[in-house]
């Protein structure tokens, strides 16, 4: 695991934009497409806005990206809470990636149908041959961590945190009175690289627990993200890192 601490959220977005741009260009030297899963919430907005501008916008071969989302809030795409809607507003609406290479979670289907639809898309895309969860998946998954230690839509105290086989799940998250659609740990942990972006003082206590505390994924679901062969990078700002002892 690599921990990168930046001065503030602005530097976090810049460091992440450089990291992602380099990773995309490095990987595209040996393959013709780059498969990425975006995250939602508020932290990635600044990153998206940077990527949509010079110099990053010219450095990323957008037409070679295949874009997915790690999780989705079950609200219409034009709702301000929808993760894909946010990414279109801040990034995808400003660059050219062919629509057929952009895979949104369908919130016009029932939650279970939407999870099944995404599962099918993923298995078709990754060309499942019976290897199931042993197939490598994304070149890069971007993740955030909520104030409660959740990542993706793996929330504290939910069964989905312990999922070992399914790639996608839909469930009703009582505390938010909302359905959530999410990739599970087995698929995330097959990524070639997982990059967490975490900022703000409200993340300091959960970050310490996730990185330095006892294993307790029921309380801190971000602990279940441990890529099997891939790289794990935590990029955090000073305020989020302020409780860490190992820096
Ligand atoms: O609800 C969500 O929250 C997490 C964390 O978001 P942040 O704004 O605190 O960084 C996010 O990673 C996830 O995609 C989203 O659905």
Automatic annotation (TrEMBL):
<feature type="domain" description="Glucosamine/galactosamine-6-phosphate isomerase">
    <location>
        <begin position="8"/>
        <end position="234"/>
    </location>
</feature>
<comment type="similarity">
    <text>Belongs to the glucosamine/galactosamine-6-phosphate isomerase family. 6-phosphogluconolactonase subfamily.</text>
</comment>
<dbReference type="InterPro" id="IPR037171">
    <property type="entry name" value="NagB/RpiA_transferase-like"/>
</dbReference>
<keyword id="KW-0378">Hydrolase</keyword>
<dbReference type="InterPro" id="IPR039104">
    <property type="entry name" value="6PGL"/>
</dbReference>
<dbReference type="InterPro" id="IPR006148">
    <property type="entry name" value="Glc/Gal-6P_isomerase"/>
</dbReference>
<comment type="function">
    <text>Hydrolysis of 6-phosphogluconolactone to 6-phosphogluconate.</text>
</comment>
<dbReference type="InterPro" id="IPR005900">
    <property type="entry name" value="6-phosphogluconolactonase_DevB"/>
</dbReference>
<protein>
    <recommendedName>
        <fullName>6-phosphogluconolactonase</fullName>
        <ecNumber>3.1.1.31</ecNumber>
    </recommendedName>
</protein>
<dbReference type="GO" id="GO:0005975">
    <property type="term" value="P:carbohydrate metabolic process"/>
</dbReference>
<comment type="pathway">
    <text>Carbohydrate degradation; pentose phosphate pathway; D-ribulose 5-phosphate from D-glucose 6-phosphate (oxidative stage): step 2/3.</text>
</comment>
<dbReference type="GO" id="GO:0017057">
    <property type="term" value="F:6-phosphogluconolactonase activity"/>
</dbReference>
<dbReference type="GO" id="GO:0006098">
    <property type="term" value="P:pentose-phosphate shunt"/>
</dbReference>
<dbReference type="Pfam" id="PF01182">
    <property type="entry name" value="Glucosamine_iso"/>
</dbReference>
């Amino acid at each position: 695991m690599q921990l990168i601490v930046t001065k503030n959220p602005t530097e976090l977005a810049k460091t992440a934009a450089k990291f992602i741009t380099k990773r995309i260009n490095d990987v595209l030297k040996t393959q013709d497409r780059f498969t990425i899963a975006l995250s939602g919430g508020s932290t990635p907005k600044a990153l998206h806005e940077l990527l949509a501008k010079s110099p990053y916008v010219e450095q990323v071969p957008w037409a070679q990206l295949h874009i997915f989302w790690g999780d989705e809030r079950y609200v219409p795409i034009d709702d301000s809470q929808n993760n894909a809607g946010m990414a279109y507003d801040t990034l995808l609406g400003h660059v050219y990636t062919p629509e057929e290479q952009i895979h949104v979670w369908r919130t016009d289907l029932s939650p279970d149908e939407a999870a099944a639809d995404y599962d099918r898309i993923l298995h078709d895309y990754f060309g499942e041959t019976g290897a199931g969860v042993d197939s490598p998946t994304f070149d890069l998954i971007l993740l955030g961590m909520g104030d409660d230690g959740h990542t993706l839509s793996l929330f504290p105290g939910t069964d989905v945190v312990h999922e070992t086989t399914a790639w996608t799940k839909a469930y009703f998250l009582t505390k938010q009175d909302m359905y959530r659609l999410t990739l599970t740990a087995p698929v995330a942990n097959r990524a070639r690289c997982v990059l967490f972006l975490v900022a703000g003082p409200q993340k300091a206590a959960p970050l310490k627990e996730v990185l330095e505390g006892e294993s307790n994924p029921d309380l801190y679901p971000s602990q279940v993200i441990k890529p099997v062969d891939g790289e794990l990078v935590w990029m955090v700002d000073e305020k989020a890192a302020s409780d860490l002892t190992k820096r």
